[in-house]
Structure to design on (1183 residues):
């Protein structure tokens, strides 16, 4: 495939979803219950093109470092430098594009049934599909782009789509508040991200990925002076700030659980599989910058490990299925950051890849439960659903096994790799990751057993029914992925996934940690950990079975005996309250003071400002007999003044 | 040039002239409502011809008429936006007056085209009056309302006064330079006084200031702005959309021509005068707009404020570099297109609705429009955000270009510091502007429950609105098409008029055709070399 075809394909990836969004938005009133078609076609075309790109990159000659595809110059200044609209296509881009468009396609198909109430489209049906396709466009732009400016645009655009979709049911106060919270928390991260990009521009006088990274490689600023380590660390940490906001890492994780107010397909696509992984993608993409600063890498690893454990403990006691999944997403994203921080970027992307399948599957499964339960998603209100929702149950269990790291499911391989690298780098962080793995298996199956096992019980007035064909089709395809996706990265297939990605990270992550290959030498270093983590996972699942199915009185006892811990976890470590006290309330107070100043001082000043011209006008009017003459006089007076000024 | 060459080179002008006469003729028949389609067809035909026309970009067509790349650029934007003006005015006066009305629009556009090719002060004066006089008629014809007649009378008298001032200034220039040919103004007499002593002859200075004052009326700069609010309020909305663009374009083009003749090397008195006028125009426009409740008055003051922004670009001139980020004239040429579209779009929306049988004028009239007409409200929001200079609209890029060009003068340039100060005043004004622009958006989206606005006007007006607003988004994402044209228009602006011979122009052309990124220094060197050979 020639370069022209590649350009065409990348344009299709980008523009087909946009066209779908515009069609769905503009002709939604006409298409009505068929509005999903533009979105499906748009995203489907993008997926096909993404596959083409993947194949092309796969067959690219060895040693090529990514293909830049300039589209046009956006803004040029007279001195030759310019901001370009430009794509960068390398294995990382190709993999991300396939993940994004593939999961999006399945979610859009799923939504066709989900966004209906007894077969009739819900209110805002066309708005939903327009926003969803717009999101795919923004996310593809974020992934495809070849410079930081477009990255920032894509970054903000996915944030906007996320805001719009979390607040999709804007009539519900909780949804509106959640949308606002997501937007504001992301602003904090994006502020740092924007500053980081600004600092990159000031340091290197360019925003082009390749140029910036080559400057960093040489350790030079645009002026030719060497970069100070402090500057490198500052840039990396500012970028990390953005990544923490978008990927819901500590301390900016608070928005993601609330974001579950959005429709379930949105949670699956944006807040599990794709958008929240943008932070991981960005850190991997900017590997040159991050690996140049040892401090930044350590911080990335610590944030990842702490977030993973922190979120997993909260998930232990939550009862809202989607919130449990949200905390598990935060925890899994923590794994990815941990992997990045210990120089195992390929493992991070591998986990991103497998996680996209099983987490999207779990969210869509939860959506299917919610659909059947008439909008109720709290596991205290139903149980034993495996008899009424057999398909949902089967696929949900597959997803849960993958999430729990059950041997031979996709999550097992990718998570095991991360723990392996973490143990090799920092034994403490590795230990935390191992503990998190056990907790993950436990809380996942706690949720499965509470919701699907035991006696069948549903909320009052609900007639449970299995979901429609469009939804089940998506669930089945995703379950295949949840089982099989891991096998592209195991020793048996020659770690094809990692080899494919290796050119991207060769100069950055891999080069910074060249001893990596030696660690694979012995049997025990490879399989020993697999046996341990697999065993832990099975033990945790069995424990959950024992506690929640066999001896259901135990949780109550534990809760009663450790009520303090329980309350801490139930209250999510009270981070929200902490923010409320330390940030929100002071901001409100400042706002009130500002309103006071505005009302009395600024308005007063404005009154004075406006009174002066009015007064002058009044004076002039008194002096003149008529309006027209006044204007003419003012013109002549103006000329006199100008002449006096000049002469 | 043999005679049919100039016939071809002025083809768009001829087409407009024929179309205007045809429209006038149709006006007296029973099928006078055909005037609108005829006018549209004329403008579109002229536009196509102007784009396809393949004649040298540096040639004196007739004595006093020059075709430069600037001419071509102005032709395209005038005719492009002119077709939108015709669309927005489609239904404007009663059918029996529509023939005259449409022909006036066409004559006014013809005036802009001639302004763009004028190379003689007398031709320039006549062309500018050809722009202005039809607009007086348009204001009067636009609606059956005493306010329209009052506005027309005011506009006419003040316009006549400004024409007198302009003519008076031109006579001073003639007296000082001994010629009315624009590109010879500097070459013959004034250059020595300008360059060697650092001082400028008093007659020349007076002439410049009077010409500037006369043109200031056309572009509505302080202190010649007072008419704008009354006239904009009095005229019907579609005419107002035109008034904000067409005379302003002609005024700025004329200003650029005169300043080009001076080699953009202005005496510091004139620089400071322009500085004060620009600062005052932005500030007065924005502060007075804050007070308005009437949307048309608000937009009138907003158009004054935009004149102030564009004056910054005029003050920068093309000396700092090439391309709209560095070259003030290029930034101006970009901005004025964007301004024309967003301003026309805002007035087009007002033309689309009536409330209780009268035209929509106040913020309350627009209250809750988004509920009834979401598409129109969105189009208005795009135009208003663009006026505000907010991404993702072309207005953002326009302001970015103007302000960044102000920052790009060399530090040793005498106006380096003052221009940075002016750009900062401009940015502060943009913030003030946001206050009243947002009130319009707020009224449309969150405004009162009255919701009395009912749609009037047919499809052409709506098409006009859509074609004004959508390109603002497209232009933000892909400004390259326009910036390339702007670059071409300005590359030889500096030299084509000054170096009077066609052979020199050919020499410049040969430089221009080699690389696109030819530095101004190269062109001027080529011209200088040639001049040296021609006049040893």
């Amino acid at each position: 495939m020639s370069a022209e075809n590649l350009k065409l394909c990348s344009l299709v990836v980008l523009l087909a979803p946009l066209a779908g969004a515009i069609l769905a938005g503009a002709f939604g009133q006409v298409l009505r219950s068929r509005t999903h078609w533009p979105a499906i076609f748009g995203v489907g075309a993008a997926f096909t093109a993404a596959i083409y790109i993947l194949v092309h990159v796969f067959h690219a000659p060895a040693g090529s470092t990514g293909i830049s595809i300039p589209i046009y110059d956006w803004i040029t200044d007279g001195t030759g430098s310019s901001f370009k609209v430009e794509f960068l296509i390398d294995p990382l881009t190709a993999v991300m594009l396939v993940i994004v468009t593939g999961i999006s396609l399945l979610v859009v198909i799923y939504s066709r049934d989900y966004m209906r109430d007894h077969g009739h489209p819900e209110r805002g049906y066309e708005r939903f599909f327009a926003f969803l396709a717009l999101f795919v466009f923004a996310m593809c732009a974020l992934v495809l782009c070849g410079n930081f400016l477009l990255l920032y645009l894509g970054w903000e655009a996915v944030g906007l789509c996320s805001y719009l979709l979390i607040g999709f049911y804007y009539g519900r106060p909780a949804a509106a508040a959640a949308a606002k919270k997501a937007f504001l928390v992301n602003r904090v991260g994006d502020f740092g991200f924007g500053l980081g990009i600004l600092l990159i521009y000031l340091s290197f006088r360019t925003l082009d990925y390749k140029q910036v990274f080559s400057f960093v490689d040489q350790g030079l600023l645009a002026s030719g002076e060497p970069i100070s380590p402090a500057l490198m660390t500052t840039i990396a940490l500012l970028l990390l700030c953005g990544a923490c906001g978008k990927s819901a890492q500590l301390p900016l994780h608070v928005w993601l659980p609330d974001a579950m107010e959005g429709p379930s397909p949105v949670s699956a696509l944006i807040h599990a599989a794709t958008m929240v992984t943008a932070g991981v993608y960005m850190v991997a993409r900017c590997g040159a910058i991050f690996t140049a600063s040892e401090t930044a890498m350590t911080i990335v690893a610590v944030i990842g490990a702490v977030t993973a454990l922190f979120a997993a403990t909260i998930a232990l006691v939550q009862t809202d299925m989607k919130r449990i999944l949200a905390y598990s997403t935060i925890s899994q994203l923590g794994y990815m950051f941990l992997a990045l921080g210990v120089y195992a970027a390929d493992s991070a992307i591998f986990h991103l890849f497998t996680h996209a399948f099983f987490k999207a599957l779990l969210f869509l499964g939860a959506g299917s439960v919610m659909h059947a339960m008439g909008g109720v998603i709290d596991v205290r209100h139903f149980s034993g659903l495996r008899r009424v929702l057999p398909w949902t149950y089967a696929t949900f269990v597959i997803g849960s096994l993958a999430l729990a790291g059950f041997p031979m499911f996709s999550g097992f391989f990718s998570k095991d790799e991360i723990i392996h690298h973490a143990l090799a780098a920092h034994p403490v962080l590795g230990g935390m990751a191992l503990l998190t793995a056990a907790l993950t298996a436990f809380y996942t199956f706690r949720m499965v057993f509470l919701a699907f096992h035991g006696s069948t019980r549903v909320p009052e007035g609900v007639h449970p029914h299995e979901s429609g064909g469009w939804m089940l089709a998506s669930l089945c395809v995703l379950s295949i992925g949840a089982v099989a996706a891991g096998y592209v990265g195991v020793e048996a297939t020659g770690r094809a996934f990692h080899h494919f990605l290796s050119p991207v990270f060769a100069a950055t992550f891999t080069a910074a940690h060249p001893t990596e290959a030696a660690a694979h030498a012995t049997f025990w270093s490879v399989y020993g950990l697999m046996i341990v983590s697999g065993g832990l996972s099975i033990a945790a699942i069995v424990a959950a079975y024992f506690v929640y199915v066999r001896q259901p009185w135990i949780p109550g006892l534990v809760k009663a005996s450790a009520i303090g811990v329980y309350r801490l976890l139930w209250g999510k470590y009270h981070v929200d309250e902490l923010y409320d006290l330390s940030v929100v309330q002071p901001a409100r107070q400042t706002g009130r003071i500002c309103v006071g100043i505005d009302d009395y001082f600024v308005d007063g000043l404005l009154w004075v400002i406006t009174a002066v011209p009015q007064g002058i006008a009044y004076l002039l009017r008194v002096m003149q007999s008529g309006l027209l003459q006044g204007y003419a006089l003012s013109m002549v007076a103006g000329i006199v003044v100008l002449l006096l000024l000049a002469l | 040039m043999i005679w049919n060459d100039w016939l071809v080179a002025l083809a768009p002008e001829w087409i407009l002239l024929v179309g205007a006469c045809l429209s006038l003729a149709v006006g007296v028949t029973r099928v006078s409502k055909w005037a609108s389609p005829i006018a549209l067809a004329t403008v579109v035909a002229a536009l196509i011809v102007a784009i396809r026309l393949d004649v040298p970009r540096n040639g004196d067509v007739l004595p006093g008429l020059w075709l430069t790349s600037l001419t071509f650029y102005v032709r395209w934007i005038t005719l492009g936006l002119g077709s939108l003006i015709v669309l927005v005015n489609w239904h404007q006066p009663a059918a029996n007056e529509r023939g005259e009305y449409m022909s006036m629009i066409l004559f006014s556009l013809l005036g802009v085209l001639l302004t763009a090719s004028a190379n003689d002060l007398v031709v320039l004066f006549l062309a500018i009056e050809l722009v202005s006089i039809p607009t007086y008629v348009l204001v009067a014809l636009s609606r059956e309302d005493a306010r329209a007649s009052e506005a027309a009378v005011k506009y006419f008298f003040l316009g006549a006064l400004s024409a007198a001032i302009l003519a008076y200034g031109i006579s001073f220039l003639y007296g000082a330079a001994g010629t009315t040919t624009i590109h010879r103004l500097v070459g013959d007499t004034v250059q020595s006084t300008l360059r060697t002593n650092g001082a400028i002859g008093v007659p020349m200075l007076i002439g410049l200031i009077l010409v500037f004052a006369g043109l200031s009326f056309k572009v509505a700069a302080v202190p010649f702005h007072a008419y704008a609010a009354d006239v904009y309020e009095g005229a019907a909305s579609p005419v107002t959309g035109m008034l904000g663009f067409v005379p302003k374009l002609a005024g700025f083009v004329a200003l650029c021509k005169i300043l080009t003749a001076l080699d953009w090397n202005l005496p510091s008195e004139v620089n400071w005068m322009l500085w004060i006028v620009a600062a005052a125009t932005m500030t007065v426009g924005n502060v007075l707009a804050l007070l308005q409740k009437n949307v048309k008055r608000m937009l009138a003051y907003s158009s004054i404020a935009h004149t102030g922004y564009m004056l910054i670009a005029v003050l920068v001139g093309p000396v700092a570099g090439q391309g709209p980020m560095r070259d003030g004239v290029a930034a101006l040429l970009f901005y004025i297109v964007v301004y024309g579209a967003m301003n026309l779009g805002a007035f087009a929306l007002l033309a689309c609705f009536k409330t209780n049988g009268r035209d929509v004028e106040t913020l309350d009239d627009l209250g809750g429009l988004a509920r009834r007409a979401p598409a129109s409200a969105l189009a208005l929001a795009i135009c208003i955000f663009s006026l505000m200079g907010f991404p993702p609209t072309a207005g953002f890029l326009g302001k970015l270009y103007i302000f960044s060009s102000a920052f790009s003068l060399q530090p040793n340039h005498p106006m380096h510091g003052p221009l940075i100060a002016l750009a900062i005043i401009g940015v502060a004004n943009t913030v003030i502007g946001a206050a009243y622009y947002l009130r319009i958006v707020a009224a449309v989206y969150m405004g009162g429950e009255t919701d009395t606005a009912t749609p009037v006007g047919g499809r052409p007006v709506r098409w006009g609105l859509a074609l004004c607003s959508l390109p603002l988004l497209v232009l933000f994402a892909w400004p390259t098409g326009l910036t390339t044209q702007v670059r071409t228009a300005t590359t030889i602006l500096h030299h084509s008029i000054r170096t009077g011979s066609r052979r020199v122009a050919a020499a410049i052309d040969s430089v221009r055709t080699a690389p696109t990124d030819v530095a101004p220094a190269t062109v001027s060197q080529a011209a200088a070399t040639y001049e040296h050979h021609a006049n040893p």
User: Anything to note?
Assistant: Residues 3-498 of chain B form one domain. Confidence is low (pLDDT under 50) at residues 188-198, 496-536 of chain B. Chain B touches chain A through 49 residues (CB under 8 Å).
